[in-house]
Amino acid sequence: MKISWHGQSCLQILTDSGMTILMDPFITGNPKSDLDPNTVQADVIILTHAHDDHIGDTEPIAKRTGALIIANVEIASFFEKKGLKTHGMQMGGKHQFDFGEIKMTPAIHGSSYEIEGETVTLGLAAGIIFSADKQTIYHAGDTALFTDMKLIGAYKTIDVAFLPIGDNYTMGPEDAIIAASYIQAKKVVPIHYNTFPLIEQNAEDFCTSLSEDQGLALKIGEVIDLSYM
């Protein structure tokens, strides 16, 4: 499995079988993104929650590529009504797809979206545990620190945990350090920071505060190959 980070919480995953997966594809309006929503490929789009900076370009990408959208039931229903392929899940649920296994975990955050000028809540925010190619990642989505993160590491060995550090809207670096100690992932990659002034953080400082060589501050578009980790 190969993974790259594209600003905010957007990940691009390439499985060994050749499947391309986008998580939280916030591209248009993301000053850090290096992706083009008009050309980026996707077989699957996974969403942690409904905020604009996570749903992002889901609709146009899915319409162009035919990608399957995986999200909570409320978000999935919203996109299904637009004629898109979806698979709805809920907190604590797990499903084995042909490309890997997804388990939806709790997150402490909102999940609203503007529809025809009205702000509507679309289910609950979530984290995602994704397993494929004998490797497992945890994408925390947007969340506060919570002690049940200990259960994530107990459920499966996490090869890479992607944790928000921006503060203000999510946990900041100090809480993310505690989260990392709960999850016990082999590697921790900071996300959801430096996209806007309000969430500016020093990712290198965060990474050096973690145990040994656990922290990994990715550059935009940098690819990590989990088979070598």
From TrEMBL:
The UniProt record lists the keyword Hydrolase: yes
InterPro entries per record: Metallo-B-lactamas (IPR001279), RibonucZ/Hydroxyglut_hydro (IPR036866), UPF0173 (IPR022877), UPF0173_UPF0282_UlaG_hydrolase (IPR050114)
Pfam entry (one): Lactamase_B_2
Gene Ontology molecular function: any one: hydrolase activity
Record keywords: Hydrolase
Family that this chain belongs to: Belongs to the UPF0173 family.
Protein name in the entry: UPF0173 metal-dependent hydrolase SAMN04487752_2528
Organism: Carnobacterium viridans
